Amino acid sequence: MTDKKRVVIKVGTSTLTYETGKINLRRIELLSQVISDLNHSGCEVVLVSSGAIGVGVGKLGFAKRPDNTRGKQAASAVGQSELMSMYGKFFAEYGCQVAQILLTKNVLEDNERRTNAVNAFRTLLDWHVIPIVNENDVISTAEIEFGDNDTLSAVVARLIGADLLIILSDIDGLFDKDPASHSDAKLIPVVETVTEELMQSAGGAGSARGTGGMVTKLIAAKGAMEAGVEMVILNGRNPKAIYDCLDGKAVGTRFVAKTAK
Ligand SMILES: Nc1ncnc2c1ncn2[C@@H]1O[C@H](COP(=O)(O)OP(=O)(O)O)[C@@H](O)[C@H]1O
Ligand SMILES: N[C@@H](CCC(=O)OP(=O)(O)O)C(=O)O
Fold first, then answer.
1. What is the band of 207 on the pLDDT scale with cuts at 50, 70, 90?
2. Is 85 marked as binding a ligand?
3. Å from CA of 1 to ligand 2 middle
4. 215 among annotated binding-site residues
5. Is 98 annotated as a binding-site member?
6. What Å distances lie between residue 82 and 76, 77, 143, CA to CA?
7. 2 pLDDT exceeds 70?
8. Domains, the chain, ranges and CATH?
9. Taking CB atoms and a 6 Å cutoff, what residues make up the pocket around ligand 2?
10. Residue 20 in 3-state DSSP?
């Protein structure tokens, strides 16, 4: 089906949840189905999934995210287990097993911990298990946090030597200006270099459930491209677009890798 053997797929909170804060079951099921199908075809997929805080907030019945760090950390602890239980259920329906990997930045900066993480990823992939990664929000503080899973997904892509990083967003791709405030914004299909001008055109999150917006996606793109990993931003509304992307069709925004891996 594809020459992309190892793929990292990142999905954001706004794709996984409704505005009510509850899990979008149809999305999560479709996403699980597509990833399981890729797994069956021999493709190695790592899923980087946000949503722990958002799902926790929904489960606790809060009207909005807590403002303080400890509240977000506690909400994440509630939501992460709920999220994994949903993934476990849906992936099992399609014959796949999942594993939870929670990372912090300092794990990757320490050689021994980094090697342990790489070994765990490799072993899980050899066993055809789908690793599902999130930041370990409960122990993440200002010094050790990634803060956003866009950056984390690019780090994971480099760590496991991925061929492709797909970021599923609540929008079709990168536009020449923020479509939330410019009705004439146009989709940019291919990016060869993340220029300063592009960075300036990128705005923040588009909803109360998203963090980072396009800024963190462009930072992720830079890291991926420099490491020889192609990156594509796709709309997560339709997880089946992942097939088109892997078939080489022009969907979303493609960031061309600078060097061979
Ligand atoms: N130049 C841009 N092109 C596309 N989207 C942009 C741009 N600048 C800001 N955005 C905003 O980024 C949002 C996507 O990021 P985010 O809110 O973090 O959600 P997600 O985690 O689902 O990707 C879009 O909904 C959009 O409003
Ligand atoms: N670790 C946090 C995710 C932070 C994050 O990057 O969120 P998002 O912008 O939805 O990808 C969580 O699981 O809620």
1. low
2. no
3. 30
4. yes
5. no
6. 10, 9, 27
7. no
8. 6-255 (3.40.1160.10)
9. 12-13, 50-54, 76, 134-135, 137, 148-149, 210-212
10. coil
213 is in an annotated binding site: yes
Gap between the Cα atoms of 195 and 88, Å rounded? 40
pLDDT tens for 101-151 read 999 988 888 999 999 999 999 999 999 999 999 999 999 877 667 778 999
Mean pLDDT of 13-33: 94
Dihedral sign (CA 86, 89, 92, 93):
negative
Residue indicated by tokens 């994440």: 76
Q: What is the DSSP string of 193-225?
A: S--HHHHHH----SSTT--SHHHHHHHHHHHHH
Nearest by Cα to 187 from 177, 197, 201: 177
What is the best residue among 13, 27, 73 to mutate for testing ligand 2's pocket, by most ligand atoms within 8 Å of CB? Answer: 13
Cβ(232)–Cβ(254) below 8 Å: yes
pLDDT of residue 253: 97
Q: What's the token pair of residue 21?
A: 């804060």
> Measuring from atom 5 of ligand 2, which residue has the nearest CA?
148
Give me the chain's average pLDDT, please: 92
